[in-house]
Amino acid sequence: MVMVLTFWATWYARNKFVHEGTVCSVARVSTFVLAYLRELDSLEALAIPAKMTKDVKWIPPDGDIVKINFDASFSSALKSSISGILTRNSCGLIMAACYSHHSGVADAFIAEAFACEKAVSLAIDLGFQSVQIEGDSLSIIKKLQSATLDKSVISPIINDICVLMGSFEEITFSFVNRAGNAAAHELARLGAHQSEPRIWIVEAPTSVERIVERERPV
């Protein structure tokens, strides 16, 4: 695990230098890795409240708000992940769907953070102004709901999401059990079998559309 985290931290530092001109010292990378290991230990002790563990169905958003569900599939062998994103309106109708690939991913925790960031960036690309971002990663959602500055090991991703939040008139983040995130989970699963990212507008793969139809409000 330490070797994988070191590889990921070095890869991330390289990207920060190439794209932003930010130089990360060896000491900073080492501190990042050690802090991340402590973060993983603390997450193992994170208990999800009993009321959140019950199976629930997808709930449509209110009014003109667009709900965007995200999920991720992670390959420990390839150190890569797939983000599955599904956008629906208050009638439960699909507005957009996509899956995208990420390389150099150390674990599922980082994969979920990337998926959340992709959900927010997709909303910006599509021009949505009032959105509800929903996923089944409680730790990610809690960090984005918090009013305090995130200082965890995934703070670069969380902070990037916070910057993107300024592009909306209204944006909220909510947690849902896996049962209520089935369509996004299916997109992430399908993307794991494809080599290229893909986006759909007002439609989705057949297996995803079946889930959406079952979840549509009566």
Notes on the structure:
The protein has helices at 2-20, 26-44, 108-125, 138-145, 155-164, 182-191, 206-215; strands at residues 66-75, 80-88, 94-103, 130-135, 170-175, 198-201. Strand 1 (66-75) and strand 2 form a beta hairpin. Helix 1 (2-20) packs across helix 2 and helix 6 (182-191) packs antiparallel against helix 7. It has 7 helices and 6 strands, in the order ααβββαβααβαβα. It has 218 residues and is an alpha/beta fold.
Features:
6-stranded mixed β-sheet; Nucleotidyltransferase, domain 5; 218 residues; alpha/beta; single chain
Largest sheet: 6 strands, mixed
Number of domains: 2
Radius of gyration equals 17 Å
| Contiguous runs where pLDDT drops below 50 for at least 5 residues | 41-53
Which homologous superfamily in CATH is the superfamily of the largest domain? Ribonuclease H-like superfamily/Ribonuclease H
Mean pLDDT: 85
Q: How are the elements arranged and paired?
A:
Elements: H1 2-20, H2 26-44, E1 66-75, E2 80-88, E3 94-103, H3 108-125, E4 130-135, H4 138-145, H5 155-164, E5 170-175, H6 182-191, E6 198-201, H7 206-215
Helix pairs in contact: 1-2, 3-5, 6-7
InterPro entries: RNase_H-like_dom_plant, RNase_H-like_EbsB-rel, RNaseH-like_sf, RNaseH_domain, RNaseH_sf
Domain RNase H type-1: 69-189
Protein name: RNase H type-1 domain-containing protein
